[in-house]
Amino acid sequence: MKNDQKIVQKTEKRLRDLEAELTLHGYRSPISQFATLEDFIESIGGKAELSAAYQAFLDQLTSFKADENFRLSPAAERQLKKAHIALRPYQRAGIHWLDWLFNNHLHGLLADDMGLGKTLQSISLLHRAYEQTNSRQHSLILTPKSVIHHWKRELERFFPDIRTYEYHGPSRRKDYLQASTPITFISTYETVTNDLDTLKTVPFFYIILDEATRIKNPDSKRAQAVKALNGAHRLALSGTPVENQPAEMWSLFDFLMRGHLGKHGTFQRVFENPITAGDNKAAQKLGRRVKPFMLRRIKEDVANDLPEKIPMDEWCELSPEQRQLYGALQDQAKQIHESLRRGESVNYAANILPLLTKLKQICDHPALITQQNIPLMGRSEKFDWIVDKIGEIVQQREQVVVFSHFLGMLNLLEEALGQKKLSYIRIDGSTNKRQNLIDKFNRREQSVALCSIQATGYGINLIAANHVIHADRRWNPATENQATDRVHRIGQEKTVYVYRIMVRGTLEERIDALLSSKQEIADTIVKAAGEGARQWSREELLELLRPLD
What we know:
alpha/beta; Rossmann fold; 3 domains; seven-stranded parallel β-sheet; six-stranded parallel β-sheet; 26 helices; about 45% helix
């Protein structure tokens, strides 16, 4: 067959443009130039020659359609019915997709919106995988410490024939890892990091990561430990697979399918740098690359039976005391503001974040800065509004969850509720027997739940409430949404009212204005892939630190 010289010349020109080196054996180009072989072939205008079997597999990979009527085994269906669990069509489709990945020895990211049942779908998959294979290997579920017991409880409720063990704490039994019958170990990321020498020698059947963004920093010891584990099948769960930057997606796939998104440096050059610079084509390309191995459904698309969620922004003013405290920090803020304006490097963690935190605390209540709690009321419009709103909700015989990321704010609210003789539960990182408190709240024995957003932003169910109050805004809107979804989730039967309380003219108003723009990158990827936010840019920091008007 005679070569078409025009095509040859065109290809050679593209190779020269790519600075490929001509050798005796053909052209050579550094592998770091491309994320994949397909990218290289596309860049030179080539066409991949694939075997019929491999092409059929690729076609199936890109055109697979999950079945909303997918059925588990008769025994599994009976057990779910016994546990009063009715799988929704989208959950059946999700299990079908996970089962398809399993049967094709592929790994995936289940990125459903919070509250849509990722736990149930993944446990159903695990049970089915053991049913199909009769594997004698153990499995490992990694989860934040606060929800270890939640996972064990759900496993035992859905499929009690799965033997489970909480591998955590000083008395954990390493010898159980040598058991001849399969055990599903439920552990934490920290425990894996500490016990890596032991755990990396275990050939696990399944490794499931709950809140998988815990390994979003590829350089962290936690991420490196998790990636050193030996698992035949891997599944990551995250309602927000992109929280701050596209590289977090790379780290998740480095656990799931090492090499699928190229080396880290290549990913940064091919995807991350262009995406953060606003290149939508790069974001769409990344989305297409992860799409076959990522399933993402949001409530609006699949859970039509969920009641409405109504967000309401409430605004108040600084009290004279708050304004005085806020103004006292302006000299410090002004110095940082000027340094940023001149383009100087300012340490975010050491200089900027503590200042922003103090400003936010002043907006909540001056006592968080002065440590003077008396009098409690009449010093912060925001605080008084929250206490009054709680009283109004309780008077209507309804329940409310209040989120704050300041433990001091929860302390003040506890004091105020005690004065008003209103019943409540409190959950933060130090809470013991939290499930007992959650159950008490959901049995409507308590009217108010005071929650640390860091400790309760995931893994719990508070559907007895139909009011949510965010006492202070998070830097990342995805975290705030996760917290709201503790109430607005499957099983909720009432309209959910979500109140965000902000102080005019302060950084809270500026944060509110900036947060909407911080969704853009993640939204672009996640339509093809998560929700999330960028780090604050220099211009945004200048706006946050602008003095009071």
